[in-house]
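Q: Structure tokens for this one, please.
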Amino acid sequence: MGLFRRGAANDAAADDAVTEIDTPDEVAESVPDEGAPENVLVPERDHGPWDVSEVDGLGTRVDLGSIWLPGVVGMELRMEIDKATEVVSAAAVNLDGSALQVQAFAAPRTEGIWDEIREEIAESIVKQGGSADDLPGPFGRELLARLPVRTEEGRTGHRPARFVGADGPRWFLRGVITGRAAVDPEAARALEAVFADIVVDRGQEARAPRDLLALRLPGQSAPVVPQDPEARQASDLDLLRRGPEITEIR
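A: Here is the predicted structure, written as tokens:
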């Protein structure tokens, strides 16, 4: 799905690093962000995702750089890595047979981008032979999609997925829910709670809208930042293919 500008280096298959947590311990806008404002006003809300200015500290979350991810008993955390650039492009939580993939992006100072991105996602899914319904959800409007997949018998099937989004102060967080949680509201509650408690640490750097915010592996001191600025853009979202996995059990 072509939703964000991509560099040639992002064509490699994603590599995954998995951590099991046992206890809570594409077209970018051409006008760059003008830099960090002196004061960013964050409206009061009863749930997240949160801006880093709205929380007292990391708490039981896992520090992944631009995303602080809540730790949940029994969950697996998979970091998706571009093999060509060694850039961590996304984080995915596996829990009770369902998954939530999250990515954070820079956004304009004056307006959100989820409405526009949602339309682009829906259009791309339909072009690929799937379907997408724009529906109300716990985080506002979301997409309930049926993604085309190729079965083992060589036939074309469909896989359900929910696309959720949250506009924050100069950032946007996108989540993709797959598995049973995509169609079962009861099964979705645990992953929705994870998404609702994510903290986004955008940083103060000037960034073009839709620029992918850097992630890092758990325990890594700093995000891996590519030399080529193009490589910081999010690659096409490919939910139909998974790269090799490296599993670490803790």
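A few notes: The chain has one domain: 8-27+46-124+165-249. Residues 114-127 form the longest helix (14 residues).
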